[in-house]
Write a structure and sequence with these properties.
Layout: H1 8-12, H2 15-32, H3 37-40, H4 48-61, H5 67-72, H6 77-80, H7 88-103, H8 109-125
Length: 130
């Protein structure tokens, strides 16, 4: 399957429900991984909105419905995170949470690898400190 074309990535992710499940698993990892304590502290205590924001963002980003834009307007990922001190260590912790969430998912191995590689791009653009 060729990801990144039309809605192939969105569909491979399981559509809207698949993305909500992935976002829930991602934030579960953030709450439990020692490496993620610092980035967890950057989020509100109640992660409900964070889960749905991530799922909505991923929907449009992966070629599905532009759910984030419909609810919140357009977003620049680096600008949205510029108020946070994000070093390569925090970026790696964020990507680790996603990697662990994907490990426990039923997505294909090639999609997991594709998604992690693609997410590394916006994650790296959020780094604003050493």
């Amino acid at each position: 399957m060729q990801y990144g074309q039309l809605d192939t990535s969105f569909l491979a992710a399981g559509g809207e429900q698949g993305l909500v499940s992935l976002a829930e698993a991602f934030y579960h990892q953030m709450e439990t991984l020692e490496e993620a304590k610092k980035i967890r502290a950057m989020h509100p205590e109640d992660l409900t909105e964070s889960i749905y924001k991530l799922a909505r963002f991923l929907s449009g980003w992966l070629g599905g419905p532009k759910l984030y834009r419909e609810k919140y307007g357009s977003i620049s990922i680096p600008r949205a995170h510029q108020h946070l001190a994000i070093s390569p260590k925090e970026m790696d912790a964020w990507l680790l949470c996603m990697e662990k969430a994907l490990e426990n998912s039923n997505h294909s191995d090639d999609f997991k690898a594709y998604l992690l590689k693609q997410l590394a791009v916006p994650a790296s653009r959020c780094v604003n400190t050493e």
